[in-house]
Amino acid sequence: MTMRLDRRLFLRGVGTAIALPCLEAMLPGSAFATGGAAAAGPRRLAWIYVPNGIHMQAWTPAAVGRDYELSATLRPLAPFKSKVNVISGLVCDKANPNGDGPGDHARAMSAFLTGSQPRKTEGANIRVGMSADQAAADRIGHLTRFPSLELGIEEGSQVGRCDSGYSCAYSHNLSWRNETTPAVKDCNPQSVFDRLFAGNNPRESAQVRAQRQADRQSILDYVREDVASVQGQVGASDRRKLEEYLSSLRDIEVRLNRTVQPPQPPAGAVRPGTVAGRRDYPDHVRLMIDLAVLAFQTDLTRVITLPFANEGSNQTYPWGGAPVPHHGTSHHSGNAEKQAMLARINNYHITHLAYLLGKLERIQEGNATLLDNALIAYGSGNSDGQRHNHDNLPILLCGRGGGSVVTGRHLRVNPQPVNNLWLSMLDRVGDTRRSLGDSTGKLELA
Are 428 and 402 in contact (CB under 8 A)? Predict the structure, then answer.
């Protein structure tokens, strides 16, 4: 007989606490009989950032409305087109100089989610504003173990000068807890894994992990009894879902435990030794995406930020056919070859977004999917990297927000702050604030 399970149930072992995904046994008994489980999952918000702007000619769809074709850059999103909105016309004015001179990269990243002008300083007196993700964490963070997760791919510095008199903190942080405190991202997949699945005692968890790795054991070995107990209380569908979840968890663990060799770029694409930045970039970004999905799936958090690189990054992308420094390439001066390489970089980043959307779409929550219950914003605080302009930003909004967003469109809106979109996202998790940064109102998405 299937029993009702607590949504907050953990599989526990020494130094380990594994949260469970949403199972049918956790939902009201009548939900599946009536079809009322379509919005059973909580709403989640995520922001993914890409630096250095976009080759907009290869990004922007020609038509607007529903009858548009995905551009060359966005084509990897074809399987999810019905659950994605392309939004043109949004502006990040506080990334403009506004009297402060050069420093567009620092301003682009720090103003993107805050809508605030960063104080031009390379000292400790940094100042910008609270970011949209932290506003969401203030509103719904108490409902989960982690109010928010700040993930990253490229390490950054909190001190020193990075861009024309601006502190590196501006170029390397997307999330800001308040005006003067960045929410520093965690770029170490093992560290993120340990935070998500460690027990309540950090010292015990560290000791257990060291012993586990020495003995080549899995965290699943520590929770076998709890796994067996849960499997004995749920139906066949939940057992299958639980097995899939634990299998994905084990897959991540294996990938973390082995020494990751840098993937070999395609033959002829780049000479050996010419990769700049993370040589394990593809594996690293996929690990971070997988961990983000697990955090959402198990309701450990409902708010995530994940920049794919820092502003001004010169990471190269031979795996996407672009063995060239990103930042340098974004300053293309109209050179057709550089523009083509920039478009390849943009397309390569979109393949990772498509990977994320595919993972979310495959996870069922009642009669909906995790993607249906999420809103994933993707974009940059720069538009054209050559011009350093911050109008007509490249923005995507993915997911249906629990059915609260009409999707499958290219929206060309009147110029307005990008923070209007963030306000609309916040509204969908119950945050009814009327302003954030330089917002002027909420962007209509229904």
Answer: yes
